[in-house]
Specification:
By secondary structure, the protein is α/β, with parallel strands linked by helices. About 40% of the residues lie in helices and about 25% in strands. The chain has four helices and four strands. The protein is globular and about 30 Å long.
């Protein structure tokens, strides 16, 4: 079971939009039931990060992160999503 942290500025708006896209990506690639996504404010991410396998954020990587970082803005814009998708799938295999 992978624990995925999903962060945006407020922990509500853009992370909710990205949550649906990431869940669909993981389900479509055979990971249904093998992950848990938790949303938070990006300001909370460093303190929470030690308990997670990776962080997907719609912001710059926060200082003091204790897990892998995946850029998430591409899931909002639809532009250049392949690098982030590839990294998420790679991290799911670790």
């Amino acid at each position: 079971m992978k624990n995925i942290l999903l962060a945006c500025g407020s922990g509500i708006a853009t992370s909710t939009a990205v949550h649906g896209k990431v869940a669909k990506l993981l389900d479509d690639n055979g990971y249904k039931g093998k992950y848990k996504i938790t949303q938070c404010k990006v300001s909370e991410a460093p303190a929470k990060s030690a308990s997670y396998d990776f962080l997907i954020a719609t912001t710059m990587p926060p200082q003091g992160l204790k897990c892998e970082f995946v850029p998430g803005v591409c899931f909002l814009t639809g532009v250049n999503t392949k690098p982030s998708i590839d990294k998420i799938l790679e991290l799911m295999e670790k």
